[in-house]
Amino acid sequence: MYKIVLMRHGESQWNLENRFTGWVDVDLTEKGRKEAALAGQLLKKQGFVFDLCYTSVLKRAIRTLCIALDELDQLYLPVIKDWRLNERHYGALQGLNKKETAEKFGNEQVMIWRRSYDVPPPALSKESPMWPANQSRYRLEDPELMPLTECLKDTVKRVVPYWENEIVPKIREGKQILITAHGNSLRALIKHLDNISDADIVGLNIPTGTPLVYELDENMKPIKSYYLGDQEAIKNAMAAVAAQGKAGK
Ligand code: DG2
């Protein structure tokens, strides 16, 4: 049996401001840093000792990992950062307030943009400074691979091959792995792991800064999965994520 830990970053500044973030590189809030530290303490209490970590190239996930590793006293670990674990690219919605967007376009449209499997948000133009191909950190990447927008299906197309080709071989070598990433890049991975249908993935919401343990069999099929921490608070945090794109109070 193998065991891995997945974790969404702690609360970011734009999570707090309820803005669509995607590939915009916003940092953690004070609360987000505390969530990351608490996650590290929970992992420590459970005796987790990791060998290798993966994260995105976005600072909210990288910093969450550093803070958690500091609590674990495992800052020595190798960390692989890859854009394939980045958040789903939110296209032209990036920067907009989710509630205001719902007031303008309706709850249903925002729900489709946030959670439908295969309807992408409006795309950026290639002139936009938000197109990753226009940003220095992605300058060595093939511009054709740099998204102008993404639906979850598009995110699955980059996350799952990365999982299969890069991470699974390391798990098979016996390495204990910690992955810190994002709400939707983790939804993409969990959809694959748990074989969740395109329709049912709509209902999956991931709380910030909460370790999610997966126990996997030799075929990488989940035996069980569970969040560490206060289960009632986790349920409430998931419901709060679901409600972020609604108009009104
Ligand atoms: C959020 C997810 O990503 O938003 O891009 O706004 O995990 O990096 O904070 P994260 C964003 P929703 O899809 O839940 O609206």
From TrEMBL:
Stated family = Belongs to the phosphoglycerate mutase family. BPG-dependent PGAM subfamily.
Mind telling me which InterPro entries this protein's record contains? His_Pase_superF_clade-1, His_PPase_superfam, PG/BPGM_mutase_AS, Phosphogly_mut1
Q: Where is this site: Transition state stabilizer?
A: H182
Instruction: Offer an example of a GO molecular function term for this protein.
Output: phosphoglycerate mutase activity
The gene from which this protein is expressed is gpmA
Indicate whether Transmembrane helix appears among the record's keywords. Answer: no
What is its pathway?
Carbohydrate degradation; glycolysis; pyruvate from D-glyceraldehyde 3-phosphate: step 3/5
Q: What is the lineage of its organism?
A: Bacteria, Pseudomonadati, Pseudomonadota, Betaproteobacteria, Burkholderiales
Instruction: Tell me what reaction this enzyme catalyses.
Output: (2R)-2-phosphoglycerate = (2R)-3-phosphoglycerate
Tell me how this protein assembles. Homodimer.
Organism the protein comes from: Turicimonas muris
Main function: Catalyzes the interconversion of 2-phosphoglycerate and 3-phosphoglycerate.
**Which residues participate directly in catalysis?**
H9, E87
Q: Which GO terms describe its biological process?
A: gluconeogenesis; glycolytic process
What the entry lists under SMART domains is as follows: PGAM
Source organism, top-level taxon? Bacteria
Question: Would you tell me the protein name for this molecule?
Answer: 2,3-bisphosphoglycerate-dependent phosphoglycerate mutase
Which UniProt keywords are given for this protein, alphabetically ordered?
A: Gluconeogenesis, Glycolysis, Isomerase
Q: What is its EC number?
A: 5.4.2.11
